[in-house]
Amino acid sequence: MGILEVKGVRKTFGGVIANSDISLSVPEGKIIGLIGPNGSGKTTLFNSIVGYHPIDGGSIRFLAREISRLRVPQIARLGLIRTFQQTRIYGKMSCLQNMQISVPQTLQRWGLVMNKIPAEDTERAEGLLEFVGLYAKRHLFAGDLSFGQQKLLEFAMALMIRPRMLLLDEPTAGINPTLINALISRLRRVSTELGITLLVIEHNMRVIMDLAEYIYCLAHGELLAEGKPETIQNDQRVVDAYLGAH
Amino acid sequence: MSTPIMRTLFYASVVLLALAAPLLAPAFKTQMAFLWVMIVFALSWDILGGQMGYNSFGNILFFGVGMYACAIVQRDSGLDYFPALYVGMVTGAMVAVGFAAVLGSGMLGLRGHYFAIGTLGLGIAAGEFASGWDYIGAGSGLLTPLFPGEIGGRETFFYYLMFAIAAMTFPVLRWLYAGRFGLTINAIRDDEDKAEAMGIHTTLYKTAAWCTSAFFLGLTGAVVGNMIGFIDPRDVAFTGATYGVWMILMAILGGKGTLWGPVIGAVVFHVTQQLFWTYLLGWQRVALGLLIVIIVVFFPLGILGWARERWPERFGHKVQQDLKPVQGGK
Amino acid sequence: MDSIQLLFDAPILSVQLLLDGLLIGAIFALAAYGMALVWGVMNLINIAQGEFVMLGGYVAFFLAQAGVHPLFGVPLAAVVLFVLGWMLYRAVIFRVVDKDLFISLLATFGLSILLQQLANEVFGADVRTAESGFGTLFLFDGMVTVAWIKVVAFVAALLAGGLLMLFLKKSRLGRAIRATAQNARAARIMGIDTNRVYAATYSLNAAICGAAGALVAMTWIIHPYLGLPYTARAFMIVVVAGLGNIAAVFTAALGLGAAENFAGFIMGAEYQAGFVFALLVVILIVRNAWLHRKRRYLQ
């Protein structure tokens, strides 16, 4: 059984069906891709998983625990963290502070609220900033970074929290194409070295085919196809969906 | 203020000057006591308004609640003047914190302008209900007990008491802002949804911040009630139109969201007000409205905010090209 | 709670209270409609709303002093306030309209204090009223009395609201305003001068509030400090009714008028203002808690 099990999830907005009967399973430690044309319900599914809105039916289990009735912060504290398509960072704080605040929020740490930031947190934050190549800019306001850099910062913040699993919404969008390969290798290292499970929404086919071990494809709010990258690549339905022939 | 020695020297001289002030200018003790009141006002407003991004128009509620709670203790406890005052101050602060904690979960769920207008309503409603409640003197107000010492001693005593409160507020906030608490409320200010998505206990932190603000305001209210000697529900306790607005204005004037900004704003505002206010002959409140508009429209960053925008590198926001020696990511 | 007992003993009193409340509610609806307009189009919450009402009241009052029937004060107040709104927009509002919400909120709060205190200095703090001399209507064998002016004011409020609605629907400027409300950037690209639209919107809001104020001066009393309660009323009506729904604004306003009248009777008139602000807080918290169940919040 996977670390994340989505079963028959349904979500409607008014009369619009954004997700209908979506099931997917993410095994621990793997990199799984989620693709689909614009408006196919990928981000809605992400939002449902992390508790951003209530779902209308189905079940979502993380670490064998039903989470579909939990709220956003509770799910995050279980170790399931998402990044945003429109990158979200704390703009008026320095990059280092953005990192320092992104630590696991457990009640044991609540006692430390009034304390100074522990040196080990700062050290780890600097290490991760180095990892994404932002160490030199650690004292700049995060809001002053370029979009791509903010994206990297958000990624580093997600790692800082020591998640069990990351949901990445288009990690390469807005990133300088020459840096994409470096980002892919970083994502792989995150998976192999830190053992973090990744579920990645991606529009860049080259990236996702290269990165993911297994891919789910959505179209019109339904699960269209699933399989290994090579299977997906050669699936006529997927090609049609992207070309708009569906 | 760059080195620790310089900083210590600076703080020491401020404290010395503050301690000596009543001797240097004995005629202005009350005005100087109110300077400390203003500093506490601006600092405590800025906890939410500047650091957390929750702009409260109704923090005056805690000031008035603290004032009344203290006065009730002084009236009904049967203790001597000083014990009653101290018990009253603690009670005032605690009751204010209680109000913040109870109101917190509901009010702090509101965001942006809903919070601002909701708190505005809260402050005014409190004044209206206080002026109808007989137990606390209703519209005719409440007298605080007479100060027992000799003439002139009263002003000196309250000056030092108010200074003590201000001298406690500043380092406590400085310490809070330097740690996780400060970072967390900053994060809530910048993007609360993100903070929630990162698992931060936002409600807990928000309530804690409001309670901190309420604590200092309650304490100050307890003292100011005794300094003035008479509590009127609308004109002394729940003074939304004067103190309530001033605290916002001072924080913005100095630069909200900074530690020193509210202090600078309070000093500039209070001194200017003391120098020129009397010449305005009844037009003070008109001038206040005009001042708000002018500051908000033309100088929204405030003194420190402007300086930080102008010289970011002086505030430490610069690229540092040194390489990190440690291998990262593991 | 003798007053509640009284309501049960003499149910006709309830009719009286209800009728009075509903009639005054129409005036609240005007201020709320204006606030919703500015909020929707400019994304600005105008705290000086109540001060526009107050100034409109003084226009009617001075007209009555000059010997003209105050009913003429309704259109005149609208015109005067339109001009004032335009001037305020040019002087202050246009500088804050695209800024951070708190900046615009605080700027209009400053305007609110400024206008209120100016009125206090210039007109004095006395309570005033503009006599219409219309007499009283007796219902249910004289058990329920309604001043004719309240009925007239109710109709006038409906008329003013209807006129504004018609203007927004039919006129060129009105359509530009509605287009800007839907998407300011798109409207700008399509060649609409949004700055002018904003100025017109803000001024129209001031005008409708002015008309409401003139009605207040005739049906009730005015003084320099009546502004904030009107702002609070307008705000809570809009929060309950939403931005785009005029029928809902009207219903909520009538409901508020009635609720306020009953509360004033039961708790005593001295608590009526307190009730308005407490109700504002309660409505905000309840509405937000309701949304929170669906994991949303007021925004």
Report on this model:
- The complex is a heterotrimer of chains A (246), B (330) and C (299).
- Chain A has 246 residues and is α/β, with parallel strands linked by helices.
- Chain A has a domain of 169 residues: P-loop containing nucleotide triphosphate hydrolases (Rossmann fold), CATH 3.40.50.300.
- Helix content of chain A is 37%, strand content 24%.
- Chain A contains 10 helices and 10 strands.
- In chain A, helix 3 crosses helix 5 and helix 5 crosses helix 6.
- The longest helix of chain A is centred in the C-terminal third of the chain and has 18 residues.
- The radius of gyration of chain A is 18 Å and the shape is globular.
- Chain A starts with a strand and ends with a helix.
- The two termini of chain B are 37 Å apart.
- Chain B has a two-stranded antiparallel sheet with strand order 1-2.
- Chain B folds into 2 domains: 195 residues, no CATH class; 55 residues, no CATH class.
- The C terminus of chain B is likely disordered.
- Chain C is mostly helical and 299 residues long.
- Chain C is 77% helix and 3% strand.
- The relative contact order of chain C is 0.20.
- In chain C, a hairpin with a 4-residue loop joins strand 1 and strand 2.
- Chains in contact: A-B, A-C, B-C.
- The interface between A and B is large, with 53 and 42 residues.
From the structure above, extract its key features.
heterotrimer, A: 246 residues, alpha/beta, Rossmann fold, six-stranded mixed β-sheet, four-stranded antiparallel β-sheet, 10 helices, 10 strands, 37% helix, globular, B: 330 residues, mainly alpha, 2 domains, two-stranded antiparallel ribbon, 14 helices, 2 strands, 1% strand
Topology:
The complex is a heterotrimer of chains A (246), B (330) and C (299).
Chain A: E1 4-13, E2 16-26, E3 31-35, H1 42-49, E4 57-62, E5 65-66, H2 72-77, E6 80-82, H3 95-101, H4 107-110, H5 119-132, H6 147-160, E7 165-169, H7 177-194, E8 197-201, H8 205-211, E9 214-219, E10 222-227, H9 229-233, H10 236-243
Parallel strand pairs in A: 3-8, 3-9, 6-7, 7-8
Antiparallel strand pairs in A: 1-2, 1-4, 4-5, 9-10
Chain B: H1 4-24, H2 29-52, H3 60-76, H4 81-107, H5 112-130, E1 142-143, H6 153-178, H7 180-190, H8 192-197, H9 202-228, E2 230-231, H10 233-237, H11 243-254, H12 260-276, H13 284-298, H14 302-310
Antiparallel strand pairs in B: 1-2
Helix pairs in contact in B: 1-6, 2-6, 2-7, 2-9, 2-11, 2-12, 3-4, 3-9, 4-9, 6-9, 7-9, 11-12, 11-14, 12-14
Chain C: H1 2-9, H2 11-42, H3 49-65, H4 73-96, H5 101-123, E1 136-139, E2 144-147, H6 148-170, H7 172-182, H8 184-189, H9 194-219, H10 227-241, H11 246-267, H12 272-293
Antiparallel strand pairs in C: 1-2
Helix pairs in contact in C: 1-2, 2-6, 2-9, 2-10, 2-11, 3-4, 3-5, 3-9, 3-10, 4-9, 6-7, 6-9, 7-9, 10-11, 10-12
